[in-house]
Design a protein that fits this description.
Number of helices: 7
Oligomer: single chain
Shape: elongated
Largest sheet: 5 strands, antiparallel
Strand order of the largest sheet: 3-2-1-4-5
Radius of gyration: 20 Å
Order of helices and strands: EEEEEHHHHEEHEHH
Helix content: 25-40%
Number of strands: 8
Distance between the termini: 38 Å
Length: 209
């Protein structure tokens, strides 16, 4: 008997005759699958968490998705929350495009985020998830020196993509209080940040993981 696999759909694109090609993140890999057009095609949507079986593995063609079922979350019916989810999960396709086998970190990160998505501000979940991802990948820049001029950052800080610190004047960017940002880096929590400060961090994440 085929075993069911759980995975998040990172992208879907149309193929011929209304068929689809989907990129799915499971707990062990990111893989592209073919899906023939069928009655349960509506399950194959960006960001959905699905249970599925695979057929045609190792046949020389794309393996095929079958026996799909959708594992839903209550917030899927909230258009604003769903849009934020799509914005977040879309960043994983380019980030993981050259990765095949992996451990469960990325799947677990998205699953934990999805479970919390209606319990707190999704932008805060995005920022906390992202700082966790940066630490996991060894890309944290939590020193107090500007990436551009290499001088020490004082009371105010600006952040480049990947949350790389810089002087606001070097980056020509709005500023955040340095202590708050360093506390966020240390705790991985946004609880001490104001909503407008979270918006600032969120916009940086949206530039790419």
């Amino acid at each position: 008997m085929e075993c069911l696999i759980k995975g998040f759909i990172l992208s879907v694109r149309k193929a011929k005759n209304e068929d689809s090609i989907a990129l799915v993140l499971s707990s062990t890999e990111v893989k592209t699958y073919y899906r023939f057009f069928g009655a349960r095609h509506s399950i194959l949507q960006l960001g959905n968490l699905i249970d599925f079986e695979v057929e045609g593995e190792g046949s020389g063609f794309l393996p095929r998705l079958r026996s799909l079922s959708h594992m839903g979350f209550a917030w899927l019916f909230d258009k604003n929350k769903l849009l934020l989810w799509h914005n977040f999960i879309k960043k994983f396709e380019p980030h993981l495009k050259d990765t095949e086998e992996m451990d469960s970190f990325y799947f677990d990160l998205l699953l934990l985020a999805a479970k919390k998505w209606d319990k707190q501000n999704p932008k805060r979940i995005v920022c906390e998830s992202y700082i966790t991802l940066l630490e996991y990948e060894g890309r944290m820049h939590n020193d107090e020196h500007c990436y551009i001029c290499e001088n020490r950052i004082e009371e105010e800080i600006a952040l480049m993509q990947s949350f790389i610190p810089a002087h606001p004047s070097c980056l020509y960017s709005p500023a955040l209080p340095t202590k708050k940002v360093l506390d966020f880096f240390a705790t991985k929590k946004t609880v001490f940040l104001e909503d407008h400060e979270v918006d600032y961090l969120y916009e940086i994440v949206m530039k790419g993981l």
